Every structure is written in C-alpha cells, then in structure tokens.
Description:
By secondary structure, the protein is an alpha+beta fold. The chain is built from 13 helices and 16 strands.
Amino acid sequence: xxxxxxxxxxxxxxxxxxxxxxxxxxxxxxxxxxxxFDFDFELTLPAEVEFGLTxxxxxxxxxxxxxxxxxxxxxxxxxxxxxxxxxxxxVPLPETDTEADTETETDAETDAETDADPxxxxxxxxxxxxLRGPSRIPPGAHLALRVDMKRVRExxxxxxxxxxxxxxxxxxxxxxxxxxxxxxxxxxxxxxxPNLERSKLVLAGRHGRDPxxxxxxxxxxxxxxxxxxxxQRRFGVPTAPWxxxxxxxxxxxxxxxxxxxxxxxxxLERVLAMTTARELRDAKKEGLLAARGPDALLSMGPGEAISxxxxxxxxxxxxxxxxVPIRLRLAVRExxxxxxxxxxxxxxxxxxxxxDASVYWKRVVMFYSEQLIMTLAGFxxxxxxxxxxxxxxxxxxxxxxxxxxxxxxxxxxxxxxxGPTGPRRPAxxxxxxxxxxxxxx
Length: 441
C-alpha cells in the first residue's frame, strides 16, 4: 500500500474513532446530567390545603385589663420584671395600646386609637385579641419567604435579590396602586402561601415610615379603584378592605403602628394564631432571634437576609414520607463581601427519624455531587463538603456559597418563578360601556 493510501486510511480510521468518542462522551454527558436519584415520593401542591401550621393553632384568649380586675383583689404594686428574651435585631418591638376593646368601632375612634402614641410595649399578644376563651384553628401548611429588606438594600447582592423578588408570581399585584414600595418602604417582608395559588397569598411586613403610612396607603388604593375603605375592629385589630387588583377580596390588618398584614378575611385569624405560635416556640432551637407580638411573625435568625420556611412538609409530598421532615427552614446569611452561609434546619417526628433521614439525605447529596453538570456549575465540591448533624428530632446542615453561586441560584429561581411567559397578571375588568350621546337637531 502506498504512503498516500496509508495516510488516507489512517485519517479515516482516526476520524471515525474521534467521532465515536465524541458521540459517546456526549451520550455519557447527557445521561449523567439527566440522572435523577430514585426517590420513592413526589412533590405536589395540594389545592385543598389551607394556610396554617402543621398542628392545630390555639388563639390566645382576651387579656385581662385593669378594668376587668376586682379592686378588692388587687395586690401592692411590684417592680416590673424584665422579659427573658432579646428583640429581633432590625425589627423593634411594636407599640401596643392597653385600653379596653370593642368589636366594632367607627372610623374616627379607630384612627384616634391606632395613630396615637400608646407608649412602651407590653406582654399582650398580637395587638389585643378580643376572642372570649380559647379558639382552635385546624392544621394547615404554608411556604413562607421572609426577607430582611434593610439588609438587602445594603447588600452587594441587593439588585439580584430584588430581581428575584420581582419574579415571585403575583404578590406585587397586591400592592399596586397603594404607593407601597416593598424594597424602599419595608424593613421586613413576609410572602406566604399554602400552595402558590394567588387567591390564598398572605402578605405581611414592617414599614419604617410614620404610623399613618399604612392608613394612607389604604386610602390611596381605595381612591385609585373608585371605592372607599371603612375601618372596623376584628379579632382585636383595626381592619379595612384592601382593594387590590386581584379579584380575591382581601383585608388589611394593622398589627401595630408599623406592622400590617394583607390576607383574605378568613386567613386573618390564622395569621394571628401563627404569630402567637411562633412567639411561644423555642427560638434558640428554631435558629431564630426571640421576638414578641407582630415581630414574631417576621422573626429571622441572626444576620439572615432571606429565609424560606415550609410548614407541614408532608402536605406537599405524595408517597413514602419516612425521610421527609414535618417542618423545614432554609436561611441565607452574608458572611463576607463575596460569601454567604446557607443553613438548613429540618424537624422530624422523632430522634430516630432524624438520624435515619440524615443518612438518607447525605446519600442523595453525594449522588448529585458526582454529576458532571453539578461539577461544571461549581457545586460539586460544595455538595461533597455538606455535613448532616442530627440532634434530637432535628437535622442541621450548613454550607458556604460564593457570590457567583448565589447569583446563579437566584437567577435560576427567578426563571422558575416567572415561567416561560413571565409573571401572570390578573384579568382586568372590562371598562364600562360609554352611553351614546344624543345628536343635536
């Protein structure tokens, strides 16, 4: 065989080998990148679940006021006892009035009571509950996103977090027309839902403006819709219709001069109950700063910028729930100019379930750490370094991410929330027909 023919044969053979190798590598990459762990459960979003906690929630009974105490049974005044808790940093304790409640008040009475300076905080529950005796609310579930907007405004990742918040479907529609800018006006923000349905969305926050800010927003929103807003007291807090663009009727409740919630009327009692339940929980075990009253609804851990809580995780799972926690909390805390620490706390039914789950989820993490696509994205080493620490009925996980990884995750989450066509908007009501004008003679 001549040299030219040998060279041509070698080139052809080499080309075939390279082509086969490239195709095999591409096939291996696709197979590796699309592999999934063999879970024996699936995630779901149940339509029938209502906003709430895993267990039944008990509303606090109406507090005893000075007018309700028998004068003959009074004891000598004792020095006040300092509460055994620390206020949640960044969210000062609310100011609370201590006068007697009435179930319904006129606008003037409510305005005078809420906007006046009531003095220092007391040991009363959220605002002042007027429930007569204990009231129990059935168990429910929710996904709750809490954001320390003050930290976000000062963070180098602020623009990325802001874009991510803008991608959360539909919650911005609750504020349109009110003049409330969640990034500029709020210090803390809570967006919660039991199943991502817009009709069941719960919004709460703490603003840093003057005490009349929320009331002015209610008036502004009502006027933009050509309606009025009458204030009345429900469950011990001032409430008014919140005429949002959504078709779902909602109510705004003033939990303090600086705290508010926007919910369906039937969810207001659940929000108040959840606030009381969070206040009574062991803050240290939950990784939170202890807080009282409305601050408990917005409480986060030390230095946290974002947290995501899933209450009633079993409601979102179909199949084997052996290794699924009943409550899950994820939090992001900045630990440097280009670094953040992500912490996860999963609560299980028992200590043995927690130990078994820590082994199971470590195996899941190691499976995904070996995937080529995770290595190329820079998460392989991060996953391999994750440690699952089981303590009693809880499993704790903590790991570090750099700024690029955080931006990648925020961008991915934003895209998932927006979907292929961007955030949905509610259907606008058709404009009223214009009556025909009479022509002149």
